[in-house]
């Protein structure tokens, strides 16, 4: 499905903020962005609202929209929290997934593994990766936990999707999925919990390392 104009603007602004091209405290002018993309202000506002939901920009009285300061310690804490939430989903999925759900999970994992080996597979693998994680959230059969985890993952997603992370992580991610899916299919809840927590931790290390190499020293706190 083709991305909307607002989504395209959102993705461009995410890359610029994380790469340090837009600095903390810098204003993001609706009119300037609209002019750059040749659109009205409406999709720009939609993109900025989405950005605000990730914490990358802030709406401030009398200052408009400004780029937020990325705190590495806070981001590391968020990844730690996501790791525990996703690990809990994996643990419950190992206990509660139906046979039909397990079969579907195994199928998506096989498709993702094939995508990981293919050329130009980053976008396709990313879609399958997200689908696999969603299946594990739903497989926990606890709507409250699934919703909290989905929202948390959505907030961190811009950092995980930052150019360079996905390409670097495809093969490692697929190998980590091997262990994770095997544990769930074996109904080994402790193993599934550990596998998912390790999977998120490895992604966290890759993201933080890349950000430290792109961000100006003044924001790396």
Low-confidence stretches: 217-221
Number of domains as seen in the coordinates? 2
- Spatial order of the strands forming the largest sheet: 1-2
Main sheet summary: 2 strands, antiparallel
Number of strands: 2
Average pLDDT over all residues: 87
Overall structural class, as computed from helix and strand content, comes to mainly alpha
* CATH homolog superfamily of the largest domain: GntR ligand-binding domain-like
Question: Which outline best applies?
Answer: elongated
CATH topology of the largest domain: Four Helix Bundle (Hemerythrin (Met), subunit A)
Count of runs of 4 or more consecutive helical residues: 9
Proportion in β-strands = under 5%
Gyration radius, rounded: 19 Å
| CATH top-level class of the largest domain | Mainly Alpha
Taking the alpha carbons of the first and last residues, their distance comes to 38 Å
Helix-residue proportion: over 70%
Along the chain, the helix and strand elements come as HHHEEHHHHHH
CATH architecture of the largest domain: Up-down Bundle
């Amino acid at each position: 499905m083709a991305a909307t104009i607002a989504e395209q603007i959102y993705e461009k602004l995410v890359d610029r903020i994380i790469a340090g091209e837009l600095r903390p405290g810098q204003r993001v002018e609706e009119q300037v962005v609209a002019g750059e993309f040749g659109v009205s202000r409406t999709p720009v506002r939609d993109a900025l609202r989405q950005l605000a939901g990730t914490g990358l920009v802030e709406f401030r009285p009398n200052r408009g929209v400004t780029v937020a300061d990325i705190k590495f310690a806070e981001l590391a804490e968020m990844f730690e929290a996501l790791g525990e939430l996703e690990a809990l989903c994996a643990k419950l999925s190992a206990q509660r997934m139906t046979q039909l759900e397990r079969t579907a999970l195994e199928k998506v994992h096989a498709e993702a593994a094939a995508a990981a080996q293919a050329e130009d597979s980053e976008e396709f693998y990313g879609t399958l990766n997200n689908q696999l994680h969603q299946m594990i959230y739903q497989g926990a059969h606890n709507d409250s936990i699934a919703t909290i985890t989905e929202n948390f993952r959505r907030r961190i997603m811009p950092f995980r999707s930052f150019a360079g992370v996905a390409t670097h992580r495809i093969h490692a991610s697929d190998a980590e999925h091997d262990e994770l899916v095997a544990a769930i299919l074996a109904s080994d809840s402790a193993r599934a919990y550990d596998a998912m927590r390790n999977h998120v931790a490895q992604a966290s290390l890759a993201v933080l390392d890349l950000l430290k190499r792109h961000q100006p020293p003044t924001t790396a706190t």
